[in-house]
Amino acid sequence: MDNSRWQALYDRPTDRIIGRLKAGTDLFTGMKEICNHFGVRGGQFQCMGSLKQATYVQVQRGEKQGTIVYSPKRQTTSPVELISGLGFIGIDMETNDLDIHFHGSFVDCDQHFSGGHFLEGENEIAITVEFILYPLKEAIPKRRKDDQFGVLIFHFDE
């Protein structure tokens, strides 16, 4: 399948989807479109490529001893090479929509290497991002607020 935002092929023997996201497409939006096209409601994907910028948060020490929190939103000031990215796909329990949890490492145009938890809608493809998607058939991760930490996480229960 080829459209203005992505190209993808389904490999029947391995039950995998391979493809690329095209320039100008948001990383999360593009992956969700591919999942919807192929009927994927849960799974995992790996990717690499280039982004116009990386928008993310990173873990940092909390005010209370032994706790962690996320940093304020960070955004690079140049395009980046996405060295490695890994995402989980599941369902948001409040909306029943697809949801993605994605972490990536990257290097910017000044050769600064970093990474973190990427934010939806703010990571536009510069040239291409190539991916392989591993769909799940029955076990669908469900994302909801965690009682202990108060953040959205995937849960793996019935």
Automatic annotation (TrEMBL):
It holds the Pfam family PCC. Keywords: DNA-binding. One of its GO terms (molecular function) is DNA binding. It comes from the Bacteria. CDD domains: DUF296. Residues 11-157 form the PPC domain. Gene3D superfamilies: Hypothetical protein, similar to alpha- acetolactate decarboxylase, domain 2. This is DNA-binding protein. It comes from Lysinibacillus irui.
